[in-house]
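Here's my example:
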Amino acid sequence: MATRSPSVVISDDEPGYDLDLFCIPRHYAEDLEKVFIPHGLIMDRTERLARDVMKEMGGHHIVALCVLKGGYKFFADLLDYIKVLNRNSDRSIPMTVDFIRLKSYCNVLIVEDIIDTGKTMQTLLSLVKQHNPKMVKVASLLVKRTPRSVGYRPDFVGFEIPDKFVVGYALDYNEYFRDLNHVCVISETGKAKYKA
């Protein structure tokens, strides 16, 4: 069995970055504590994950499944990097794209934004495996270190983060903050303002 790819581990006491150092939409200025993972770092890490996926799954036709809604941005960027590798390297991955619907697939790459407890992904994996795919791999931008975790870890991980409420890069809080480029920690003011 292949080994899991390493991830960038962000420590529990990571201070993050001052919001004034980045372009943050004015309407969120009071709603965020800090920038946790800047957009450029997300993009660079996503490019590396695309290389890892190519190394492990190259040569197999895969179906890339997007877990909506939060996964769409990471999904699009990861697949864009895989397409660049398809054009510019000696290996390639014939690829089709789908959104989570249960049907038969051969080789599956599930792309998720964040693994919190891992329960949802375990449920999804058991449903996908009922269709007997040859190979199933999971790529997640973020994995949260939380005492509520069931211990599930994806095959490809961008960042391992502390148990903080993060938004941005398509991660939302009641449908807000998907338009942020960076992954940020939401403030108590933001939680109160956008509470459902």
